[in-house]
Design brief:
Layout lengths: L7 E5 L6 H16 L4 E5 L23 H11 L1 E5 H6 L11 E4 L1 H8 L5 E4 L1
Parallel strand pairs: 1-2, 1-5, 2-3, 3-4
Helix pairs in contact: 1-2
């Protein structure tokens, strides 16, 4: 029996201004979900916009899986969270985000990142 993959917490701080970094975070999160990992993807800074319906389509990157498809994978098998302060600065409330996306603060990020065996990545 293979060991259970450890929890993976991924935080992305970029939006359309850094498409490769942003897409990489979503790609790694989706790949980890596909591998059976417990994945938590945090959208901070300009990435917070991708929690809104249709906004993932704003990021177009040649030779990359569309961001919307990657986000769907993560939403189906993991967790997606928008930073509380980042959401507030952009006027994003719970009523604005995609179904399954939560808004939470630093304490939750720290709790997930410090969980036993957890690995945190920041893009």
């Amino acid at each position: 029996m293979s060991p259970t993959p450890r929890p993976l917490v991924i935080k992305t701080t970029s939006g359309t201004e850094r498409p490769e970094a942003t897409n990489q975070a979503f790609t790694v999160a989706a790949a980890a979900v596909a591998a059976g990992a417990d994945v938590s993807l945090w959208l901070t800074g300009e990435s917070a916009w991708f929690a809104l319906p249709g906004r993932a389509a704003d990021l177009v990157l040649e030779h990359a899986t569309p961001l919307g498809e990657l986000l769907e994978v993560v939403l189906e098998g993991g967790r997606v969270t928008v930073c509380t302060q980042c959401a507030a600065r952009r006027g994003i409330g719970p009523e604005h985000v995609l179904p399954g996306v939560r808004i939470a603060g630093a304490a939750v990020f720290v709790e997930e990142s410090l969980a036993e065996r957890a690995q945190a990545l920041v893009y």
